[in-house]
From TrEMBL:
Protein known as: tRNA-specific 2-thiouridylase MnmA
Entry EC no(s): 2.8.1.13
Phylogenetic lineage: Bacteria, Bacillati, Actinomycetota, Actinomycetes, Pseudonocardiales
One GO cellular component term noted in the UniProt record for this chain: cytoplasm
Domain tRNA-specific 2-thiouridylase MnmA-like central, first and last residues per copy: 206-272
GO terms (BP aspect): methylation; tRNA wobble position uridine thiolation
Entries under Pfam families matching the protein: tRNA_Me_trans (PF03054), tRNA_Me_trans_C (PF20258), tRNA_Me_trans_M (PF20259)
Main localization category: cytoplasm
Residue intervals of the tRNA-specific 2-thiouridylase MnmA-like C-terminal domain: 280-358
Similarity-based family: Belongs to the MnmA/TRMU family.
Amino acid sequence: MRVLAAMSGGVDSAVAAARAVSAGHDVVGVHLALSAKPGTLRTGARGCCTVEDARDARRVADILGIPFYVWDFAERFGADVIEDFVAEYAAGRTPNPCMTCNEKIKFEALLDKATALGFDAVSTGHYARLSHVDGAPELRRSADLGKDQSYVLASLTSDQLRNAMFPLGDSVKSDVRAEAAERGLMVADKPDSHDICFIPDGDTQAFLGKKIGNRPGTLVDDKTGAVLGRHTGVHGFTVGQRHGLGIDAPAPDGRPRYVLSLEPVSGTVKVGAREELAVREIVGQRVRWPSGRPIDGEVDCVAQVRAHGGTAPVTARVQGDRMHVTVDGELRGVAPGQTIVLYAPDPGGDIVLGSARITETG
C-alpha cells in the first residue's frame, strides 16, 4: 500500500512513519509548511510546524530511507484555521484550532492531494484507534487514555477515515519514546508541542487584540445586573474563566466569580457563581458521523466537550443538522464554539458515535 506519512518533526509522527515502513508499505514522508513566515511560529521545545521541525522530520526520513518533501499549505492554513479562529472569538465563541487543523488541513487538503497523487492512505502520529465494522471505519479512543486524541478527530467523515492510518493507537507514549530511541531517531526525547502554533509568545489575548482591535464593553453580575468592570473586548474571555477578569471587588459572599456568557454585539460579559456554569441542555450544528452511521432516535451515550476534559452521561437526538443533548450528569463551563463528541457507553465507552459544533447551552 502506498502511504503518505505526515511528519510534523515530533516523536509521534516519526514512530508512526517508522511503523508504516516496518509494515512493508511504500512510504513517502511529507512535512506541512503552515506559515509564509516560519519564524513567526513557536520555536524550540514548545514548537510545532516550524523550520526546526521540518529539519527534524527530514533527518528522520533519511534514517528511515524514505523520500521526503515539504508541502506549502500556508495559504490554506491561514484561511481555514487562523482566520476561522479569529472570527470565532470575535463572535464570542471558543474554537479549537487543532481540531480545525485536523479537519481542514490534515484530512481534507492533505488527504485530497495524497489521493490525487495515488496514495492509498495518510499516516499520522495521532493517538487514536481505527477498527472496521461491515466495511465502515470506527473511530475509537487510544490505548493511552492520557494521550487520547479521538476527540480532536471526531469531526472527520467516514470517507476521510477510510484513508487514514493511526499506527500509535495501541501504544502508550513511554513505549513510543523508547521505540524511537531504539530506532536511533534523534527526536526520541523531543518535548511535546504545546499551545497554539501560530501564536509565537503564547499570549492569545494580545494576538486577538491585534487582529480584532478594541471593542469596549462591561462585566455584569448575572443576578443583579450591576456593572462590575470594563474590558476592551469579549475576545479576551472564555466561558468558565475565573482569573484575569479585572474585577476589583470580591463577590458579596467572598466566592470567586466566573465568566458565564459572552454577548459580542453589546460587549457584555456576564459573570457569576461556579454553580451557574452547569449546563443541562446543549445544541450543536455541523453534525459529523465518523462511522457514517447516524444515531437513530434518542440514544443514551457519553459526551466530552474538551480535548482533555471529563465526560458525562447524556441523552442525544438529532433533527436534521442539529444535535440536541440532555446532560444527565454534570458538565460545567461549556461554551458555544466548542465541539461536543459523543461516545458509545458500552463496551468500554471508547467508540466515537458523532460530533457537533456547540451553538447553544442552557
